[in-house]
Write a structure and sequence with these properties.
By secondary structure, this protein is mainly alpha-helical. The chain has helices spanning 2-42, 46-54, 56-77, 81-115, 124-146, 149-179, 184-216.
């Protein structure tokens, strides 16, 4: 009986380790997809655009696999306390990761449309926004892998800066469209791209909140630090 219990405990720990590994793998894949999508727009890299879109089915497949394992653990292992928080958080985190993948694929797709249209609209603002969004995403995924509550809080506070960049980008693009109607089509694509980047930032913040809860058992405040981007929604 003791050997059977030891075997069961070992199997449970192995499944938890597997769940963590799969979630981290999904996070790294989404990191790469986002980096490619940003390169597609700021560097006009068509190959990066194709690669970012091609990664989306892999992200979706990983989400399904992680969800299946998490549900199995909840149903058969009856986890408690910290393990229960972690497994429930993983289910929510992978949902955010999947949505980040969708946003990245959308950015990559629109980047190819922008590339086919002549425009003098600068993308410096998008470059800065993309860099900050990707940095925040990487920090959120690192915090997840290390179960680092302090790292999660740092990501949570950084989202306001992304909001401010989105607001500045929104105003800049609207000004271009008002001054030169010929830029309307390309600027519209860029507006959607900026919005998707802002959403990636929001999902990274969601991940940070889940990580903090899993690590501490406490929730971060419901009112996030916000920039003026929220007024532009």
């Amino acid at each position: 009986m003791v050997k059977e219990q030891a075997h069961t405990v070992k199997s449970y720990e192995q499944e938890l380790t597997q769940l963590r590994g799969m979630t981290s793998a999904m996070g790294r894949l989404v990191e790469r997809q986002s980096a490619l999508a940003i390169a597609a727009i700021v560097d006009r890299d068509e190959q990066a655009s194709r690669e970012a879109q091609a990664l989306d089915p892999q992200v979706d497949a990983l989400e399904r696999d992680v969800e299946a394992l998490a549900i199995r653990l909840l149903a058969l292992r009856a986890p408690m306390a910290g393990d229960l928080r972690e497994i429930v958080s993983v289910l929510k985190i992978t949902g955010d990761l999947e949505r980040i993948g969708d946003c990245a694929a959308s950015v990559a797709k629109r980047a190819r449309k922008v590339e086919t249209q002549p425009t003098d609209v600068p993308v410096g603002g998008l470059r800065a926004m993309g860099r900050l969004v990707h940095e925040n995403l990487c920090r959120a995924i690192d915090a997840m892998a290390r179960r680092d509550s302090e790292g999660a809080v740092a990501v949570w506070y950084s989202d306001a800066a992304i909001d401010e960049l989105y607001t500045a980008m929104f105003r800049e693009l609207v000004t271009y469209m008002m001054e030169d109607p010929r830029t309307i089509r390309s600027c519209t694509h860029l507006l959607f791209i900026a919005k998707n980047l802002e959403r990636i930032g929001d999902h990274a913040t969601n991940i940070a909140e889940r990580v903090y809860y899993a690590a501490t058992g406490e929730m971060l405040p419901a009112d996030r630090p916000r920039g003026s981007a929220k007024a532009a929604k």
